[in-house]
UniProtKB/TrEMBL annotation:
Pfam families: Peptidase_M18 (PF02127). This is M18 family aminopeptidase. The keyword Plastid does not apply. The lineage of its organism: Bacteria, Pseudomonadati, Pseudomonadota, Gammaproteobacteria, Alteromonadales. PANTHER family: ASPARTYL AMINOPEPTIDASE (PTHR28570). InterPro entries: Peptidase_M18 (IPR001948), Peptidase_M18_dom2 (IPR023358). It comes from Hydrocarboniclastica marina.
Length: 431
């Protein structure tokens, strides 16, 4: 395969997916182009063998699957899971702040964001707007300003001499973003700003009022290839849009015949407890409708899930934050994530199966275990394993700067994971 084209397409996907809503829309466009059929959960489904289908819930989660040529009940379903959300700053319902000659937006921290890198960035705004049109009909639309419209300025070192030694961030006081320096007595509102942008970009909608919104600030700097040898990928939202894209490409490019599925859930960064999150009924509901209630449990007993979520690469400046035998390196292969306390769902059977697939392609993989004196994060892997009763592997591309506004991963690792997942989807046997 052409690695350069693969990574170029990945960068395009990242640049056009500033929110889960936009990420799902980007994936939907690729599925439509590949001939997948959209399914409506409110309608009766008539599924055909060896066909591709997808279901979208809330506009922010998506499940795409191939029915396969044979019996999914007898042969099992090969599944890959990822998540569409990333830590960020989301506008509050009433974000407008006017003080000291500045118009600002108040924002709530979503997920476990690394906050320091949000200062002094060229921030744009994107998300979903619910509007009322000239016929008093309610509609929904996605908005992406695609240009810098805000910034969170740092306080000068002269006014905070201890900033480099002991500065903490108060999310309420320190993070409102500056949007405009309005004229004396001029008042702005975010709803007016959104309505104006909606009219500019989509005048055919005839929107007359913004009823509500879910908007996120994001770094307007596009994804880039960095490093002297061009071996690193730097971008916002690599955790976990990278896995969404890799899983989607693997599903689209797989050798057809086996039953295969990709699920990309929203709300992983805040616990997955929602109608479209991994703790919700989305995936179970779709599988039951596809396989039939009577055969669902038989099918799950012979199926396997690969939960793909990025891993912590060893940081050359902070090597002591890793277990001495488990410091994954960037571009040395995807990382099998292990935790005996079930924060990851990997076991020896699923790990060995991945190693066999990877080895058959001559590709490397690595292992991560958190230090015994540090808390371990988690993924949708254990949640999905518990909900479905399915064998599960947790794996991910190693990266630096996880949950920062800009993260870094290895180009080779992205391609490596894609090749193994494509083989996994087509594998005639599962463990």
């Amino acid at each position: 395969m052409n690695s350069e084209n693969f990574v170029s397409s990945l960068r395009e996907f990242l640049n056009h997916s500033p929110t889960p809503f936009h990420a799902v829309r980007s994936m939907q466009a690729r599925l439509d182009e590949a001939g997948f059929e959209a399914l409506d959960e409110r309608q009766v489904w008539q599924l055909e063998p060896n066909q591709g289908y997808y279901v979208i819930r809330n506009g922010s989660s998506i499940v795409a699957f191939r029915t396969g040529a044979g019996s999914a009940v007898d042969k099992g379903v090969r599944m890959v899971g990822a998540h569409t959300d990333s830590p960020c700053l989301k506008l509050k319902p009433q974000p407008d702040i006017h003080r000291h000659g500045a118009y600002q937006w108040g924002a709530e921290v979503y997920g476990g964001a690394l906050l320091n890198p949000w200062f002094d960035r060229d921030l744009s705004l994107a998300g979903r707007v619910v509007y009322l049109d000239n016929n008093d009909i309610t509609g929904k639309a996605l908005i992406d300003f695609r240009r810098p419209v805000a910034t969170v300025p740092s306080l000068a070192i002269h006014l905070d001499r201890e900033a480099n030694n002991a500065r903490s961030i108060n999310a309420q006081k320190d993070l409102p973003a500056v949007v405009l320096l309005p004229g004396e007595g001029e008042k702005k509102s975010v709803k007016a700003v959104l309505l104006a942008e909606l009219e500019r970009v989509n005048p055919e909608l005839a929107a007359k009022d913004v009823l509500d919104f879910e908007m996120s600030l994001y770094d307007s700097q596009p994804a880039a290839i960095v490093g002297l040898e061009g071996d690193l990928l730097a971008s916002a939202r690599l955790d976990n849009l990278l896995s969404c894209y890799v899983g989607l490409r693997a599903l689209l490019d797989m050798e057809q015949g086996q039953a295969a599925l990709l699920v990309c859930n929203d709300h992983e960064e805040v616990g997955s407890m929602s109608a479209e999150g991994a703790q919700g009924p989305l995936l179970t509901s779709i599988l039951r409708r596809w396989l039939g209630d009577g055969d669902y449990h038989r099918a799950m007993a012979g199926s396997m899930m690969v939960s793909a979520d990025n891993a912590h690469a060893i940081h050359p400046n902070f090597a002591d934050r890793h277990d001495e035998n488990h410091g994954p390196r960037i571009n040395q292969g995807p990382v099998i994530k292990v935790n005996n306390n079930q924060r990851y769902a990997t076991n020896s059977v699923t790990s060995a199966f991945y190693r066999r697939l990877s080895g058959s392609l001559g590709l490397p993989c690595q292992t991560f275990v958190v230090r015994s004196d540090m808390a371990c994060g988690s993924t949708i892997g254990p949640l999905t394993a518990a909900n479905l009763g399915i064998k599960t592997l947790d794996i991910g591309v190693p990266q630096w700067g996880m949950h920062s506004i800009r993260e870094t991963a290895g180009v080779k690792d992205c391609v490596n994971l894609y090749l193994v997942l494509k083989l996994f989807f087509a594998s005639p046997e599962l463990p």
